[in-house]
Write the structure tokens for this entry.
Amino acid sequence: MQRDVVIIGAGAAGLMCAITAAGRGRRVLLVDHSNKAGKKILMSGGGRCNFTNMYAEPANFAATNPHFVKSALARYTPWDFIALVAEHGVPYHEKKLGQLFCDNRSKDILNLLFAECERAGVELHVNTAVHRIERAEAGYALSTDLGPVATESLVIATGGLSIPTLGATGFGYDVARQFGHNVLPTRAGLVPFTTSGELKELCTELSGTSVDCVASCNGESFRENLLFTHRGLSGPAILQISSFWHPGDTVEINLLPDRDALEWLQGEQAARPNSELKTVLGEVFSKKMAARWLPSRPMKQYTPAELKRIADQLNAWQVVPAGTEGYRTAEVTLGGVDTREVSSKTMESLKSPGLYFIGEVLDVSGHLGGFNFQWAWASGHAAAQVV
Ligand SMILES: Cc1cc2nc3c(=O)[nH]c(=O)nc-3n(C[C@H](O)[C@H](O)[C@H](O)COP(=O)(O)OP(=O)(O)OC[C@H]3O[C@@H](n4cnc5c(N)ncnc54)[C@H](O)[C@@H]3O)c2cc1C
């Protein structure tokens, strides 16, 4: 079998690349080893797919080479994808901070992509593994479950390692290495923290409690909600900061981002010396959290040094996570194919002509909030212009 373009991996990036390349008249074969295409799209955004972010810009992405994302993001913007969503009549809304979600279900986005694949004439085969890839005179020769396939352009869109049960594999990294690419070490990103000891007990007891905070680590800060869970800490603020955390690092959490806790506590101590600390805290936190956070005594009994310690624990709570939940629940994989060896304009390998890498397999990961899909759409679209 001979095709102009073979794309391995029918996730967000692979589907977009297939649709756009087939729309240019290229004969496109899109294969996935899983029994279904776009499984992560279905799971995403809590079942409502946060399909883009209106304010996506290069600063929302982490990559060893920060300039890499600029060209593709500029040439396929959130508004391009929004136009496609609108064309298909998919209802959506902005949840917050530019994050666009389906009103109904993620499947609306997948159906849209399938309809576009059909319209463009993409040949999609699921349950199809690729066993071997070799360089051929004019491109690549593949040994697949469909038999031998020859192609001029081979696009690797197999994503990262997050959520193996959804079909994630390290296939893309192996292909990259085979063709001389450097693959940067990978680790789980946008992932909950696990805790141990007393901190774990606290998290378990407060499990289900959510609180507005600023989480900071290694020079990055995010203001969002934190959620205590039975295993540790989660919620958008924690997922965001997890991408900048390394084992052993301390995460600083400001649980009262809008006020100086010391000034506030001193004021409360003067105004109502007989009130218990938990009553005072109960005015800004849930009752459960106020009661469990610190041992409570009447306000007048706290010395200035004790009050300062309590304030520090509110404005600058120091947390050392035991680890993360890992790829089992991570929304993204950090690291991956080194972007310094890939064209930022076309996503083509600078080591092996005709080979392309798109989506999450690359060392590009977005913040939480629709940025990762925008990267999948934009990088898939960029490669599709030239394959
Ligand atoms: C639970 C969850 C929720 C998420 N929610 C959001 C969200 O709301 N908004 C957002 O922007 N991002 C979200 N993300 C991140 C987003 O899903 C990914 O960044 C995006 O899907 C990456 O696209 P991709 O096409 O590169 O990879 P993927 O979507 O992972 O697709 C890779 C495809 O390659 C296939 N594949 C893997 N190995 C092989 C192989 N050896 N042979 C053949 N095929 C193979 C897989 O089966 C898969 O279909 C979420 C992620 C998770 C896990």
Notes: The pocket of flavin-adenine dinucleotide is lined by residues 8-14, 32-34, 39-40, 43-45, 49-50, 129-130, 157-159, 162-163, 167-169, 171, 331-332, 359-360, 370-373, 376 (CB under 6 Å). The longest strand covers residues 147-156. The mean pLDDT is 97. The chain has 13 helices and 21 strands.
